[in-house]
Recover the amino acids of this structure.
């Protein structure tokens, strides 16, 4: 019976929860190139808040889990799980550099009969066509002779404390039928809701990319409807509630699409489709529409201000939230930045309040100063509720407004009688 020693490469929102989970059953080590991140984790605290201090400290103290930046520390592992980001370049083409670098690291330490499993979201073919050749070149080993591969796409939902990693059904796959069984069994041993074994690595890769692309397209449709109904003076949320009375209506609300998954992953499939001579028009249109929603929210807020006779030039505006989703510190690819930048054309008096976000990270990524405590004694010409943080739901927002101030509710969570408009 094989005794597995697992290394998870990349200790972010995906890798750390997975490594912590595997550590409850197997000897597990986490590898990350960020020394500051590793040092913080070894004190028992996860700044992403995906793993609680209690669970992380239990893994370290009772299950021998450790994190490192030293490749030599992971040389004796026999299963390597790669969970690094897959961003896009400025022109929205796939940026595979993190995967290439991780594969290079694996190639430096992998041994005969080891298995490398990729979790990063990619277009079909990346694992076998882009990653495996790097490992072969660096290690001198031959794929499916000396080492093997699997793919199990991540399904982490940042900030979601209900659908945590152990409760997620995972798709698995392997480079041979035997390896597929091993990978499937490995994940099944720590998951509560089992697995779905795909017929190939490419099928598993494709399954993940369409999960997020489908959601992106569906939200784009709701955003388009919101624009139509707003122009007609019809409340979109009322329409959705009415339509939801039919048993097969898919209920989705309009909103901003940001973050590291839904707003990025479709570009991977779009790019690969074009290689094969297919132009994915629906996905292209969905991306374009969703990417424009931040500017749309800003323009709608300005229209509300004009209707109420509020001078827009140099107005004092408060934006509630900057993370890409509620109750989560993740600010990657947040579309609230688009709201901010559009409003900056009218006024520089914009305050962004978010108790979840890291001000240093926001400043570094977007050159925006935010506050983590609500300013006292201030009255605003307009307030935009951009994120549905728990702290905002019961906030007395009207008390922060001037008498004729505007409240715009992006998320549709505020009482109707205190808002002027919502998406």
């Amino acid at each position: 019976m094989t005794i597995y020693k697992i290394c998870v490469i990349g200790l972010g929102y995906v890798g750390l929860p997975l490594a912590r989970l595997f550590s409850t059953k197997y000897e597990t080590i986490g590898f990350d190139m960020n020394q500051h991140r590793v040092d913080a984790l070894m004190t028992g605290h996860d700044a992403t808040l995906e793993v609680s201090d209690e669970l992380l400290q239990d893994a370290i103290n009772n299950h021998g889990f450790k994190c490192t930046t030293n490749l030599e520390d992971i040389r004796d592992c026999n299963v390597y799980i790669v969970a690094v980001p897959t961003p896009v370049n400025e022109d929205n083409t796939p940026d595979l550099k993190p995967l290439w670098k991780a594969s290079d690291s694996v190639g430096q330490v992998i041994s005969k009969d080891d298995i490398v499993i990729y979790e990063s979201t990619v277009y079909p073919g990346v694992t076998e066509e882009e990653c495996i050749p790097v490992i072969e070149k660096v290690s001198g080993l031959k794929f499916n002779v000396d080492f093997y591969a699997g793919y199990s796409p991540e399904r982490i939902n940042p900030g979601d404390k209900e659908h945590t990693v152990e409760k997620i059904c995972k798709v698995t796959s392997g480079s041979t039928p035997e390896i597929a069984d091993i990978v499937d069994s490995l994940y099944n041993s720590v998951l509560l809701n089992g697995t779905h074994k795909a017929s190939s690595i490419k099928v598993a890769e494709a399954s993940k990319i369409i999960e997020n692309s489908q959601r992106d397209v569906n939200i784009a449709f709701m955003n388009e409807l919101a624009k139509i109904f707003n122009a007609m003076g019809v409340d979109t949320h009322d329409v959705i509630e009415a339509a939801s009375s039919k048993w097969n209506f898919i209920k989705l609300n309009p909103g901003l699409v940001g973050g590291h998954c839904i707003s990025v992953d479709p570009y991977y499939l779009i790019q690969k489709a074009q290689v094969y001579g297919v132009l994915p028009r629906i996905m292209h249109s969905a991306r374009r529409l969703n990417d424009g929603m931040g500017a749309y929210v800003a323009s709608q807020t300005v229209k509300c201000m004009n209707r109420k006779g509020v001078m827009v030039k140099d107005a004092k505006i408060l934006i509630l939230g900057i993370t890409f989703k509620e109750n989560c510190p993740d600010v990657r690819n947040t579309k609230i930045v688009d709201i901010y930048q559009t409003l900056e054309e009218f006024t520089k008096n914009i305050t962004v309040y978010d108790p979840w976000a890291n001000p240093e990270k926001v400043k570094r990524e977007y050159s925006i100063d935010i506050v983590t405590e609500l300013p006292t004694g201030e009255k605003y010409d307009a307030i935009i509720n951009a994120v549905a943080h728990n702290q905002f739901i019961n906030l007395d927002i009207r008390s922060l407004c001037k008498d004729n101030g505007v409240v715009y509710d992006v998320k549709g969570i505020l009482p109707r009688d205190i808002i002027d408009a919502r998406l």
